[in-house]
Design the sequence.
């Protein structure tokens, strides 16, 4: 089995789902099971539930007081008080039964004590006054819940009051999750050379759980045709749905599609979506089997696009409408006409607008799934969307929390994560890293509340304020002071190439930062001063997006040197040759200083907890941290 | 301990919560515990989590193909193909490590086979082309999640990829739930005379679970001072929070507040809210103890208002903002200046407006909690709100599903529940029962899509159409035909009082329907024809809201007779003396017929499944069911 299917098809998403559902239709049927009401929270009723008894079960007192016979209280009034003897009434508390001959209740507050345990009343009781009639709340035989209803806390209370202790709920579909790949290693196990931690199956296990399924996760199956085939065969027999991860494309060791063709019907292999193209939709033994691609973002999208709707049908639900919000796109997005693209975005509310800022687009960038607030979908047959256009965003976080989030776009520093962690409950900080210049432009366009930046003014030799005045001429701005930090050349421990300064970068493998990053501009400034052309530096064109990414490349030997902050070098155990100290501050339009979440951000900068964490990290000076300077630009 | 505290205080809601939180502040601290990442779904991080390794762990192939040394591919081009020998490359699959001397990958698609296992290339490889650099996704030492973050499926995947297998999460607060009351009986147990099914504790158990707490529910404790006190003392020692249900007022057997005064500090006894006034907020052993009133709606509101925010503090969260929607109030609401009132409402989207229709207001009406879509809050110091005014509604259901809901306001019939149950997935039917006349007026005011009604035109002796033409003169309306149904006098089996017709109602205990109900208008019409005055009928003023409620009262002996539909009598095992047959139809403005959920409703009326259920129920004729008649009024 080493014959290769070189090409995947490129079927549009809707058509792929329709083909799959058509192939499944004859087989899908929601099942039900009987469970106890007290364990039914969040389960879905399999059939309508009718009350077995009345509530209240009998006419009962609605107040504390006495039960009376209404006809015997006639004539009582303010000026004509009436005394009831012990035979005329009985004391009752709220909820006590009112049985014949009694037909009314008089409240304790309206009673006056008389001799021989009698009571004096000063008003006649109307028949049925302060009596809760039988069945007032729930009438025996009435429908309490329709079928297909997700059971809430109050439903449990009413079911029990209506005499129901067990009910029929829809069975949770049993879903097998099979990771594959010879190189896959269980999390926490020893890592052999070339091994990869198997984590996708655990993400999908959690998605299935959220979707109301009952997941069973298998240990990784190596890339061997027979083992993959027998596992699929066995699972299709025992489970309601099978998700097999990785090996779904058309490579040398991608056996899944061949195994599925042997076992059943492959409805689709290859979908016009990105990420997620190498998805397989098949039916084996009447069960849906989905081949989920191995890149984490592809796996997530293949699950949400195909597995989730099928899981809902298996549970007897209609397809879920995905809640969309409208946002303004912060940067231009180019896309191919050939597929639908899902772009991860950060979403923030700045002024009255929701702003969507695109994140990394690679299928392997799982961390961007964590950082993202949602997906922006670019349709097939669209070449992309311009900055400033309105886009639909599929939110992956609570839309409400967006109101309390400080949106930061700009230069990267390790302190942003620390600050995000230390924000007080109810406020949060969301950071996108596009470099100093990119951040200031975003701020100018109203796409962020704050822009962290560190830009040297070549004329004055000072940081930040001159650039800010120049860029925001005529606007009321402020600078929230951040930290002073040392920039230097990061090298492997012991500095094996003996690099002493900028001039030595011409004789090593360099790794640069992306365009617009303050650290790159610093390099350019230093090179210019020394008359060195960028082309003299091997690796000048190789870009990394953060200080930590540069440090990781140096440590691993992929590069010999890279410019970055000392804190990042220290965190990675690298040596650093200082080339200057700079101010890393936050630009902010003055009007945003009023916002409660921005104030929380300033307080966090000033907090003792933050200072403590900075000291631990090292490489920073913090004298002015959190000071606010108003600047008339 | 039988001394009575006759009066509760009446402290405003915000003040009560502030007092309680002030008393708790010195004691509250969120705790954390270490758990496995694979079990961490929906848990909340106790501290920030940093990556322990890079992902990818090494430079790796981003494509299937061959790894090459980029410098050795220089010069290759379309017209200058280059042959690489087996020593110049190595075959790689996506994800395989790229180790020195290799520094680039050429895709399989760009290769051509040559002799001796060599390959021909037609383009030079740029350094690092198709290579995923180490740490591209996750850099060792970077923050993956901040503290206080609720863990989602994608977070689990990234944590594992970042080398994390265990993490610190906030401990779930342990909450004791203690129902009290000597009359309380466990659900499903034999019911002694005067017993009440204990269900509140199970509703609250579910609320605690939804709120992220770990509930422990106790069996009901009888109303005995010493047992209540010792249970409270023990629970305050062992749990993080205690909720004790019922016995919280100032009645003869309400011991809770006395026990709490003996054990600790009672911060509040009596809150200016309705329902929910007899709430106790206390601190024992540094633990919050809440005395939750025994009426189900009061219990729910006391939980949401006081227990939920405290549970959130214990879990280390900020108080949750409650999501509100704006809706138009369908009926006037009168309220007292003395307290904040929570009125249950049905909410529906009719045209562009959300409409809130008030439901039953009693504290005991648990069923209305199930039927409600949310709460409308009337502030203290407000006398109420007029029909048509805009009100804030706290939704208790998914706001999205409101878009697909047919809003029905009008006359009650058992078929409404059947129809609600049979609506196809993705559409639903929401019914409010206000009688025929009330429904038509609601329809006229744009508060409903359809109005079920049965109104006899006294002049023509025909049902529904004349009234509709009269009421909606000039509008394009339609009638969706419903069912024919027999109205009759419901009596206990065997007809012990020998009632033969309307005239005999003067010699029995009658139970009537509410004003505006078609069934009441039918009685009035029949009485008038026979020259009988309403005052001649005992119980004419006693009102029930549904046919089933009338039937329950008759069966229980609370009344001897009541007018209602034969189906209700049959469901309750009563005899019925027919007085007429009538048409129960649905009025609808013609423009609503287009709506997909209204079409689903019509289809449901016509469905075989519905016909089948009607036959089982009995008492209906269904020849025209689901037919649509357009009516120019």
Sequence:
């Amino acid at each position: 089995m080493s014959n290769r299917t070189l090409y995947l098809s490129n079927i549009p998403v809707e058509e792929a789902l329709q083909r799959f559902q058509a192939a499944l239709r004859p087989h899908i049927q929601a099942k039900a099971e009987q469970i106890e009401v007290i364990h039914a929270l969040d389960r879905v009723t399999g059939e309508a539930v009718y009350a077995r008894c009345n509530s209240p079960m009998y006419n009962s007192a609605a107040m504390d007081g006495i039960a009376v016979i209404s006809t015997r209280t006639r004539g009582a009034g303010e000026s004509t008080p009436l005394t009831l003897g012990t035979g005329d009434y009985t004391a009752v508390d709220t909820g006590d039964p009112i049985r014949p001959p009694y037909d009314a209740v008089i409240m304790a507050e309206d009673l006056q004590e008389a001799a021989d345990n009698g009571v004096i009343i000063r008003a006649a009781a109307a028949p049925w006054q302060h009596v809760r009639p039988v069945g007032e709340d729930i009438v025996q035989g009435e429908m309490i819940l329709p079928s297909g209803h997700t059971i809430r806390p109050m439903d449990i209370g009413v079911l029990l009051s209506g005499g129901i202790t067990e009910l029929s709920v829809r069975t949770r579909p049993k879903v097998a999750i099979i990771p594959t790949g010879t190189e896959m290693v269980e999390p926490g196990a020893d890592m052999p050379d070339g091994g990869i931690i198997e984590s996708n199956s655990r993400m999908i296990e959690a998605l299935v759980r959220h979707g109301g399924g009952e997941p069973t996760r298998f240990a990784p199956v190596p890339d061997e045709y027979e083992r993959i085939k027998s596992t699929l065969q066995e699972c299709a027999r025992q489970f309601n749905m099978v998700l097999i991860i990785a090996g779904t494309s058309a490579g040398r060791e991608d056996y899944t599609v061949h195994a599925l063709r042997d076992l059943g019907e492959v409805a689709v292999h290859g979908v016009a979506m990105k990420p997620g193209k190498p998805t397989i939709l098949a039916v084996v033994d009447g069960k849906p089997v989905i081949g989920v691609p191995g890149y984490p973002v592809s796996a997530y999208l293949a699950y949400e696009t195909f597995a989730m709707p099928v899981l809902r049908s298996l549970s007897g639900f209609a397809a879920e409408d995905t809640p969309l919000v409208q946002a303004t796109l912060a940067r231009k997005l180019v896309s191919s006409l050939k597929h639908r693209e899902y772009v991860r975005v950060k979403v923030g509310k700045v002024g009255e607008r929701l702003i969507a800022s695109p994140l990394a687009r690679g299928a392997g960038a799982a961390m961007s799934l964590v950082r993202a607030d949602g997906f922006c979908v670019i349709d097939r047959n669209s070449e992309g969307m311009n900055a400033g256009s309105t886009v639909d965003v599929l939110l992956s976080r609570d839309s409400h929390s967006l109101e309390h989030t400080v949106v930061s776009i700009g230069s990267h520093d390790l302190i942003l994560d620390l600050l995000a962690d230390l924000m007080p409950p109810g406020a949060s900080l969301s950071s996108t890293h596009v470099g100093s210049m990119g951040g200031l432009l975003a701020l100018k366009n109203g796409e962020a509340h704050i822009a962290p930046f560190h830009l040297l003014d070549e004329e004055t030799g000072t940081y930040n304020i001159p650039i800010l005045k120049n860029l925001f001429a005529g606007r009321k701005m402020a600078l929230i002071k951040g930290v002073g930090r040392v920039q230097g050349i990061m090298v492997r421990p012991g500095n094996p190439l003996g690099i002493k300064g900028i001039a030595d970068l011409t004789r090593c493998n360099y790794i640069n930062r992306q365009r617009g990053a303050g650290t790159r501009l610093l390099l350019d400034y230093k090179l210019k001063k020394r008359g060195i052309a960028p082309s003299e530096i091997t690796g000048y064109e190789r870009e990394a997006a953060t200080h930590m990414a540069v440090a990781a490349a140096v440590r691993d030997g992929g590069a010999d040197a890279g410019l970055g902050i000392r804190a990042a070098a220290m965190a990675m155990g690298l040596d650093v040759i200082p080339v200057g100290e700079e101010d890393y501050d936050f630009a902010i339009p003055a009007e945003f200083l009023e916002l409660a979440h921005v104030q929380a951000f300033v307080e966090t900068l000033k907090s003792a907890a933050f200072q403590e964490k900075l000291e631990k990290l090292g490489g920073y000076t913090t004298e002015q941290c959190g000071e606010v300077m108003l600047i008339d630009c």
Observations:
- The mean pLDDT of chain A is 91.
